[in-house]
Amino acid sequence: MLAAGVTLAVSAMSGCGTGAASDARPPADAAAVVRGASEALARAGSAQVRTAMEMATGGTRVTIRGEGGVDFKSRMGQLLVMLPADVKGKAEHRPITELLVPGALYMKNRGAGVPDDKWVRVDTTALADGNLVTGGATDPLVAAELLRGVQQVTYVGETEVAGTKVRHYRGTLDLGRAAGSAPPEVRGALAAAAKGFRKDTVPFDVYLDEQGRLRKVRHRFTYVNNGVIDVSSTTLLYGFGTPVTVVLPASGDIYAGKIAD
After folding, report:
1. What digits encode the pLDDT tens for the residues 20-43?
2. What is the pLDDT of residues 156-169, one digit of tens each?
3. What per-residue confidence (pLDDT) applies to 77?
């Protein structure tokens, strides 16, 4: 099941920095601050997002990038995911449009025999990775909810992300704990990831602004799929309050046939 869950990212293989930390006084309870990042995003309402997923295995390293927006109140988002070019610099794949909703991922231009005018719908609760890597980008909503599973965290210091003053925290989280603490809308996907990944412990670096909003987070996942694959998934949030509209495809626009690996 995990092999099917990472088809998009692995198929691409065939073809992010901040300033120095300061001596700022750390918060009284760093773990509580980090766990509260998702609530701070809900209060912000919405944001624009950029993603980068770097995958490395067997000496091969590729980066898949995405850009779009997320509505944290409706828990919906939209990304345009750009797969890497081939070794000659030629783009082998058209950008993939992804719609993110609780429990599902919709993809257009998925390829692999899917008609150009059709969408593919994937049940994220049935994926062994819970859509942490499936679409070539960790769902920004899920990326924030993962932080509820903080085990250990250290306050590194103050720095800047895209010109905004932030506090940098580093630590590890537990996928099972995150699933148990998450809202019902994302609990299924996180529970699937907790069962499917080789390790429950996920290292992270997170950067929060003065309002506790997540500005940047990097998770590092490791799993086995015909060899050990290391994934560094980075999510960058900005433009808080920017309206985000997600229109789901009609049932007749969803491809019901077999999808090639």
Report:
1. 444 456 667 899 999 999 999 999
2. 999 999 999 999 99
3. 96
Check residue 21 and give its pLDDT: 43
Angle among Cα 158, 163, 167 to the nearest 5 degrees reads 20
Distance CA 70, CA 243 (A): 9
For residue 260, name the pLDDT band (cuts at 50, 70, 90): low
What average pLDDT does range 161-180 have in this prediction? 94
Contacts of 210 (CB under 8 A, 6+ apart): 165
C-beta neighbour count of 239 within 10 angstroms? 11
Query: By the 8 A CB rule, do 106 and 249 touch?
Result: yes
What's the rounded Cα separation, in Å, for the pair 121 and 257?
Answer: 11
The strand ranges marked E within the chain are 46-57, 60-71, 76-82, 96-101, 104-108, 119-123, 150-161, 164-174, 201-208, 214-224, 228-238
Q: Cα(224)–Cα(152) distance, rounded to whole angstroms?
A: 25
Closest CA to 249 of 117, 124, 141, 140: 117
Tell me the C-alpha distance between 190 and 115, whole Å.
Answer: 30
Residue 87 has φ and ψ, to the nearest 5°, of -65, -20
